[in-house]
Amino acid sequence: MNMQSSPGLGLRSATAKTSTYLRVANELAEEIRDLPAGHQLPSENELATRCGVSRLTARAAMQELERRFVVTRVRGRGSFVARRLEILTRVGSSPSWSEAVRQAGGQPSLRVLNVAEVDVSDEVCRILRLDGQSTAFQVDRLCYVDGLIAEVTRTWFPKGLVPRLDDLLGRGGSQTVLLESFGFAPRKTWVRTDLVPVPGEVARLLELEGQPAVLHTASIVEDAETGTPLLTGESWMRPDVVRTTVEVGVETKGEGH
Amino acid sequence: MNMQSSPGLGLRSATAKTSTYLRVANELAEEIRDLPAGHQLPSENELATRCGVSRLTARAAMQELERRFVVTRVRGRGSFVARRLEILTRVGSSPSWSEAVRQAGGQPSLRVLNVAEVDVSDEVCRILRLDGQSTAFQVDRLCYVDGLIAEVTRTWFPKGLVPRLDDLLGRGGSQTVLLESFGFAPRKTWVRTDLVPVPGEVARLLELEGQPAVLHTASIVEDAETGTPLLTGESWMRPDVVRTTVEVGVETKGEGH
DNA sequence: GAGTGGTCTAGACCACTAC
DNA sequence: TAGTGGTCTAGACCACTCC
Questions:
Q1: Do B220 and A249 lie within an 8 Å CB cutoff?
Q2: Nucleotide D17: nearest residue by CA–C1'?
Q3: Which of A21, A77, A217, B182 is deepest in the core (most CB within 10 A)?
Q4: Calpha distance B171→B180 (Å, rounded)
Q5: For residues A214 and A133, which has the higher predicted lDDT (pLDDT)?
Q6: Are strands A85-90 and B40-41 parallel, antiparallel or unpaired?
Q7: pLDDT, tens digit, for every residue of A211-257?
Q8: Rounded to 10 degrees, what is the CA torsion of A194, A195, A197, A203?
Q9: B193/A195 Cβ within 8 A
């Protein structure tokens, strides 16, 4: 045990309650409080030497700060001050992820993993009002914020919405903008959010070790004018990259009656 | 390195990709898949011996399962199959936490930490329509599921709602039931949810080490008939104890137009 | 090749629970 | 008192990034 966490005899019950790694974590958190996002932090070895603890303890402190979304770590590169983009989700708002990221001050980018016509579940059939048909266009995408993987989405579109839809979807770009260019006014009409351990295949896409908890969201988007269902789908979001706030109810907070 | 993670030469690139602790975690997860909640699991030492790994590796595996909400661990007692109660939050629904827990099959209990008349922020004044007054009753509570700490809440009530309100609130029991007994029909009209690192003081109440991410919720409750604001407040919930699903929009999922 | 974080080992002491 | 999980050490090898 190092000196800093070993107070004089007789004081133990009063002071030495918190563990070393939490003390180191709190010290470091205080130190980096005003540093800009992306600023490089001391390495595990540096921190260990500086605080007179083992590397594992320094590491535990860094991991604690990672859990607090204060620090981001990259193997081979180092540890950095984290940035967590704040995104607000509301029913009735535009479903554009790109726009939400841009509004929050981030640089969005998208990568289409896959476009295919697939058989869909009865539930998706009902939501998209596919009466008769049993297939739809399925699009899997990776969403980035400032080059960091933020979200994986799987979306289903009705086939007859516009001509050559699958081709257009495969080109990437905002799905919302695409729909708007055909005269639709896409709006979220239903949202469901959940904190769940990320499924294995999604974990790989999000480049997560193990299966930590991520924010899972299912949603339905319809045309504001006609109520035509435009798409439905679900997504898994890295909570360390994006802070998603879900807001429900009148905007005026209790004054709308 | 133990035998199980050291495949024959030449096979390394094909197989030995995942780390030992994840392999142990996945094995154990498979093993306990059908065990009932509360069932005791092998200790770290047992698991280490059985899998031929060090205790730290066995421990890392257990912690991974804890992150997946599959395992609960108690110092001095052991590791157990976790139970994560599913609770649905919707605008317009009854705000009773006790009722939600009971519906999900859990045993709710409450502990009032504190009742006091306090100065409140301008925002709370506006929400509760306190025009003129600047104080309200503040109630801090701990909410339990089957004896496990699940949630910390801080709630503000307007003073004039019913006579001797502070006294009644201090006795514990469901706040919703109390309001209903006075003829009110409390309904959530506004909810905002967020995943944030738990503040230090709340962490102590929730008996969490460090400051891991918890579900933070702010809400407003009004009378269904008159729109009278009945309470507002915020809460912090342990995601390992409760799986909170927030649902927004028409129940029929796109058929309500 | 030097430095980073990720994993793993063997061994130790501690606080806590249960008997 | 025995067993549990929580913390800590010293040392090691690895995969990865950057130069």
A1: yes
A2: A76
A3: A21
A4: 16
A5: A214
A6: unpaired
A7: 999 999 999 999 999 999 999 999 999 999 999 999 988 755 444 43
A8: 80
A9: no
* Amino acid B256: pLDDT: 40
Nearest nucleotide by C1' from B63 CA?
D5
Beta partners for residue A141, in sequence order? A112, A153
Are B25 and B51 in contact by the 8 Å Cβ rule? The answer is no
**What's the rounded Cα separation, in Å, for the pair A133 and B226?**
47
> Cβ atoms within 10 A of the Cβ of B256, count?
11
As beta bridge partners, residue B216 has B194, B236
A5 CB closer than 7 A to any strand C atom? no
Q: Which two tokens stand for residue B40?
A: 């005791």
Within 10 angstroms of residue A134's Cβ, the number of other Cβ atoms is 12
Rounded to whole angstroms, the Cα distance separating B16 from B8 reads 10
Rounded CA-CA distance B64/B44 in Å is 13
State the pLDDT at residue B249.
Answer: 81
CA distance B130 to B128: 5
* Residues of chain B with C-beta less than 8 angstroms from the C-beta of A124: none
| The total number of residues written for chain B in this structure | 257
Eight-class DSSP state of A3: G
Q: Minimal Cα–Cα distance from B170 to chain A, Å?
A: 26
Q: What are phi and psi of A76, to 5 degrees?
A: 85, -15
Q: Report the pLDDT value the prediction gives residue B91, as an integer from 0 to 100.
A: 83
Q: Is B87 in contact with B101 (CB distance < 8 Å)?
A: yes
The phi-psi region of residue B164 (left if phi > 0; otherwise alpha if psi is between -120 and 50; otherwise beta) is left
The crossing angle, in degrees rounded to 10, of helices B20-32 and B55-67 is 60
Kindly tell me if the per-residue pLDDT of A90 is higher than 90: no
The strand C neighbours among A residues 35-64, by Cβ under 7 Å, are 41, 43-46, 55-56, 59, 62
What one-character DSSP code corresponds to residue A36? P
B19 vs B14: CA distance, rounded Å: 13
* Chain B closest-CA separation from residue A153 CA (Å): 18
